[in-house]
Amino acid sequence: MRRSHSDPEVESYLRKAERDLATAGRMSESGPDFADVVCFRAEQCAEKALKALILALGEMPPRTHDLVVLQQALCRLEKKGQILQGYCLALTDYAVAPRYPG
Predict the structure, then answer these.
(1) Domain residue extents for the chain
(2) Tens of pLDDT along 3-22?
(3) Cα distance between the two ends of the chain
(4) How many CA within 13 A on the CB side of residue 17?
(5) Residue (of 11, 17, 96, 86) closest to 50 by Cα position
(6) Alpha-carbon separation of residue 16 from 51, 67, 82, 97 (angstroms)
């Protein structure tokens, strides 16, 4: 069963994704020293947006931070999700790597 954009859980994921995107935008204006934070927030935005899409299509999203796994779950529901593959591959490593030194 598909959910509407106004479904509370879908809306909650989208609100969080929008905040992550806004934070990434603000931090990107702070210069290259914040690139790790910008990439982390961009990954978080993509993760929450993918989970919102999967929910909106009537499925529970996988419990993972791996954008490729989320993108593949989306593709099983909506073939057009294939266009996101390259972006998900590029961003997925930023879920964990920027959290730690080195």
Answers:
(1) 8-99
(2) 666 789 999 999 999 999 99
(3) 44
(4) 16
(5) 17
(6) 11, 16, 24, 21
List of the chain residues with pLDDT < 50: none
Burial 75-98 (b: 16+ CB within 10 A, else e): eeeeeebeebeeebeebbebbeeb
Pick the CATH number of 8-99 from 2.60.40.290, 2.60.34.10, 1.20.120.330, 3.30.300.30: 1.20.120.330
Burial class (CB in 10 A: 0-12, 13-18, 19+), 39: buried
Q: What is the pTM of this model?
A: 0.89
Residues in the chain: 102
